[in-house]
Every structure is written in C-alpha cells, then in structure tokens.
Amino acid sequence: MRLILAHGAGAGITSPFLESMANLLADRGLALTLFEFGYMAGRRDGGTKRPPPRAEALVAEYRDVVAAVRKKHPRQTLVIGGKSLGGRVASLLADELYQSRQIAGLVCLGYPFHPPGKPDQLRTAHLKDLRCPALIVQGERDPFGSRAEVEKLRLSPQIVFAWINDGDHDFGPRGASGFTRKGNLADAADAVAAFVARISDAR
C-alpha cells in the first residue's frame, strides 16, 4: 500500500503538520508519496503568493500525480488523500479512480466541510453518495467542521471518522483539555494505519 498525500491551502508539504504526520505514518510501515500542487511549488520559486485555485481546478493535477505514481510503483495499491484542501481535491477524484480500480481508498486529514464561521456553505454534495472507502480524521472542534456540526450531516456510509480529542484543524488540543498535540497526532496516524490495513485486507 502507498498513500499519496497533498498539502493544505496555505502551507506545502514541509509544513510542521505534514512533516510530523509523514514521519508517524512511515513509522507505522506506510509507504508515502507527498506532492505539491503547481501553485504552491510556484511560491517556492519566488512566484507571487496568490490564493490557491478552486479545489475543482486542481483535480486534473492530482489525477496526473496518481498516474505518475502508478507508473513508478505498478505493484503497489494506492490510497489518495491530503490535508484540508488536498484531501478535498482527492475526494473529488476518489470515486472516478476507485471505480476504475486505480485506488483502494481515500484519507482526509482535517476535511474542510465549510469555511470557518460559515457553516451553511457546505462542501459535501459529492460526499453524500461516495462509493470509495474513506477515512476522515477530524479534530472535534475543527472550525472547518466540528464534531457537533458534522454528525448532523448526511454522508455516505462508506465514510468512517476518527475524531481527535479536543483537536483543532491541525489536531492541536487546548492546554487545559488534558490531551497533547503529540498524542493527538499519534492517534491520527494510528487511525490512518488501521484504515489502510483494513481496506488492504478487504481486497
């Protein structure tokens, strides 16, 4: 199994969150491919720091990455996903690739169900009938979709959740909660590893 992960809207694959998650997932035996969308790579090359494109505009780029990874690792089963925006883009592509047997599942780390403070602007239409097995790892108090908000939504039964105790969008808890960022990130990595193992066994 190989997990392909894209980054969030404002930080690339060298963000502290993704670097920590990548190390924890590698420690759990997962093969990883992390990549950056062109707009983020352009920022590194001195380009202007413009807002990211709409998620829909990044789907083709993600599809090309999957094709390249499949060519490089033809014997490995693939799971796609990402942090926030990256996970959302992967989710828009998931059913297409799952039905054509190019991937086995989807992993979203902090899915952006809605913009912060705008719970009516949902980004869930395609998640209602998703056929691809999916894991969403979400902080309980994520401003992009808290547990209380998300549990009221109608979503595909193919989607399972791993709720991170008192976590924000990066799974960080409040100081007085009794939980730690280190522990929460480890819990998130455990959830991803267990999900990948489950869908691998089901194939």
Taking Cα atoms only, what radius of gyration do you get, to the nearest Å? Answer: 16 Å
Strand order of the largest sheet: 2-1-3-4-5-6
The end-to-end distance, rounded to whole angstroms, is 11 Å
CATH fold group: Rossmann fold
Main sheet? Answer: 6 strands, parallel
- The CATH architecture designation is 3-Layer(aba) Sandwich
Q: Helicity range of the residues?
A: 25-40%
Unreliable stretches (pLDDT < 50, length at least 5) are none
Number of DSSP-assigned strands: 6
State mean pLDDT (0 to 100 scale): 95
CATH 4th-level superfamily: Alpha/Beta hydrolase fold, catalytic domain
Q: Helices and strands, in N-to-C order?
A: EHEHHEHEEHEH
**Count of helix runs:** 6
Structure description:
The protein is α/β, with parallel strands linked by helices and 203 residues long. It has a single domain, classed as Rossmann fold. Helix content is 36%, strand content 16%. It is built from 6 helices and 6 strands. It has helices at 16-27, 38-44, 59-72, 85-99, 147-150, 181-202; strands spanning 2-6, 31-35, 78-83, 105-109, 134-139, 159-164. A 6-stranded parallel beta sheet has the order 2-1-3-4-5-6, with helices on both faces. Helix 4 (85-99) links the parallel strand 3 and strand 4 (105-109). Helix 1 packs across helix 6. The chain is globular and about 50 Å long. The mean pLDDT is 95.
